[in-house]
Structure formats: structure tokens, C-alpha cells
């Protein structure tokens, strides 16, 4: 299935980015540019939440960050553990990088919808 990315900005300072039909074939899904999406002049620490639902097919949904949109590192939750969802669920995070993106690794037959909320 084709990956669809939509962004919604609410009046209460929350940005919701939805990734529909993310799977392991999406090796470079659209990144969220923190400054552009959050109307900031530069990257600042952002509080957010990632939620994933769907068919995981033994895959893992990671949340990654980058400052150059080329080199990526796994982001960690508030407990210092790299975010890696293997079933429906979510994780809260803080990020001070310029870009973030979800990525599915491993598994086959996955079809996951990922929702990322960012607080302005």
C-alpha cells in the first residue's frame, strides 16, 4: 500500500502528523521538519507522543531523529530506552533535533498507521 502523510495543526498548539500504511518498504519516510512544522526559527526541544496501530508482521516501529535529514539516530523515551514498538501502543518523547521520522525495521507483511503529536 502507498504511504500517505498528513499534517494537522490544532488551535491548542498541537501538531498531529499521520503516516498511513507505513511498512518496511518505506525506507525513507517523509521526515517532520521540527522548525517548519512547529513554526520555530530553529530546532528546540519538543515534547511529543508516538502511537502505532495495525499489523506489525514481526516488525518494529522506531522513532528516529536527525539534524541533517541524512544521518539518523534512534530517539529514546523518558526512561532512556530506544523507542521500538512491536505491537499497538505508544511512547512519549522529548527531541531537540531538527527532523524526526518513524521507520519500520524487520518483519514482513506489516501495515502500520503511525500518529505523532508534537506540542508547540
Output the keywords:
1 helix; single chain; mainly beta; 10 strands; 3% helix; five-stranded antiparallel β-sheet; 120 residues; globular
- Globally, the shape reads globular
Average pLDDT rating: 87
Low-confidence stretches: none
Number of strands: 10
Helix amount, in percent?
A: under 10%
Profile the largest sheet.
5 strands, antiparallel
Treating each run of at least 4 consecutive H or I residues as one helix, how many helices? Answer: 1
Strand order of the largest sheet: 1-2-10-4-8
Class from secondary-structure proportions = mainly beta
Give the ordered list of helices and strands.
EEEHEEEEEEE
Strand content: over 45%
- What's the Cα radius of gyration? 13 Å
Distance between the termini: 31 Å
Describe what you observe in this structure.
With 120 residues, the protein is mostly beta strands. The chain is built from one helix and ten strands; from the N terminus they run βββαβββββββ. The protein has one helix at 34-37; strands at 4-9, 14-22, 32-33, 46-55, 60-66, 73-74, 84-85, 89-95, 99-105, 111-119. The strands form two sheets. A five-stranded antiparallel sheet has the order 1-2-10-4-8, with no helix packed on it. Strands 3, 5, 6, 7 and 9 form a five-stranded antiparallel sheet that branches. The mean pLDDT is 87.
Write the layout of secondary structure elements.
Blueprint: E1 4-9, E2 14-22, E3 32-33, H1 34-37, E4 46-55, E5 60-66, E6 73-74, E7 84-85, E8 89-95, E9 99-105, E10 111-119
Would you summarize the structure shown here?
The chain is built from one helix and ten strands, in the order E-E-E-H-E-E-E-E-E-E-E. By secondary structure, the chain is mainly beta.
